[in-house]
Amino acid sequence: MTISTASRPAASSWVYLAACVVLVSLNLRTLFSSLSAILPELTAVTALPAWGVTLLTTVPITLLGVFAPLAPVLAHRFGTWQVLGGSLVLLALGLVLRAVPVPDGGAIIPLLAGTVLSGAAIALCNVVLPSIVKQDFADRVGLMSGLYTTSVCGSAAFGAGLTYPLYSALGGWHLALGFWAVPVVLAAVLLVPVLLRHRSTARVSTSTTGRSPLTSPVAWQITGMMVCQAMTSFTCFAWLAPILRERGIDGGTAGVIVAVSIVVQMAGSLFGPVWAARLRSQSWLNVAAAVLTAGGFILSLHGPLGGIWLWTGVLGVGQGALTALALTMITLRSSTSHVAIRVSGMMQGLGYGLGSAGTFLTGQIFASTGSFGPAAWLFAASGLGAAAFGWLAGRDRSIRG
């Protein structure tokens, strides 16, 4: 399907569109990393039961998969940019809701409700962003893929590194978590001119007809890569700080280590897609990222504590590159923007839906053994899977609608 020239950004406006994409992306992971940064304190203050902790760390990731298939339908009806703008409003409401003060013992209700709403909003954003890159930045796919995935990593870094200091400075977990609605509102306001401009072309670049990506082996290989990387990626967001604290590192330092690791991710997520876009095959690149990710996580669990900054740095480089490459495979392997959004819906729906098992299983391992140590086997398996599917997905082939 040919992309309408009306939907392409003019030379004078593509920088503003790019800035909007970056600002939106900077809000797509604070939901996950902010909670984990103060999870021990929140659990102690609210007396959250073990099942409540499991829900709050697993449900939002599962929702990324549940709501992802809805994004192509909404984009066809309203347009990709409109879905992005509406999702930001939902995200802001969800982040505010989970921070609502309630009497002792009832915190799980607004926490879970806000988490559900926020997770659904992030799911829609996740799916439409690759299509927007394919549609509005067709001649800058590598650059824009790198910028928006780097910004996603930055979002996680902000949540991990700033939430604990906010908790200490503001004197409560409610304000520390509620703070993250502020940058979402700012991004939504900046998106208003873009939404007004795209009103007349809202449905030009999306379609729900044509060959289903479910029939494409390439789409399934990309999905398999996404499942395996999501198992490690979101387990890191949810549990890396508690893992470090179990190893004897205090809460503030653990938050800084996680934040630095995620900042390092930004290097991998920025240069991975740029490099990938210049290659005909990305197989070896995908495999290298998977090996670094699994190796870094296992060393963070069992490596000498004196090298923890190095281990989490290796994890950061690998995880940033692996996440970005999985998302970049959507744009590189899709023949058009409407194919890209359908592949994105399939890949992220199944990828996050099944990938959330990593967070759940890690929590269950800790609950049953009292230690995160045995989870190393889970990370080894997910790394091997990501390498195998990444090799297959990286071969030079296209998905056609």
List the keywords.
401 residues; Growth Hormone, Chain: A; mainly alpha
Number of domains: 1
Task: Tell me what portion of residues adopts beta-strand conformation.
Answer: under 5%
Would you tell me which CATH topology applies?
Growth Hormone, Chain: A
Major beta sheet, specifics?
A: none
Helix and strand pattern: HHHHHHHHHHHHHHHH
Mean pLDDT: 83
Tally of extended strands?
0
Computed CA radius of gyration, to the nearest angstrom: 20 Å
CATH superfamily: MFS general substrate transporter like domains
**Amino- and carboxy-terminal Cα gap:** 8 Å
Helix/strand class: mainly alpha
Query: Roughly what percent helix?
Result: over 70%
Low-confidence runs? 1-9, 202-208
CATH class: Mainly Alpha
The CATH architecture category equals Up-down Bundle
- The dominant shape is globular
Individual helix count: 16
Keywords: Membrane, Transmembrane, Transmembrane helix
Protein name: MFS transporter
Summarize the structure.
By secondary structure, this protein is an all-alpha fold. The protein is built from 16 helices and no strands. It comes from Citricoccus nitrophenolicus.
Question: Secondary-structure map with pairings?
Answer:
Blueprint: H1 14-25, H2 30-37, H3 39-46, H4 50-67, H5 70-78, H6 80-97, H7 108-136, H8 141-170, H9 173-178, H10 181-197, H11 217-246, H12 251-277, H13 283-302, H14 308-333, H15 337-369, H16 376-393
Architecture overview:
- Keywords: Membrane, Transmembrane, Transmembrane helix.
- It comes from Citricoccus nitrophenolicus.
- This is MFS transporter.
- Pfam families: MFS_1.
- The protein has 401 residues and is mainly alpha-helical.
- It has one domain: MFS general substrate transporter like domains (Growth Hormone, Chain: A), CATH 1.20.1250.
- It is built from 16 helices and no strands.
- Helix 5 packs across helix 7, helix 8 runs antiparallel to helix 12 and helix 13 runs antiparallel to helix 14.
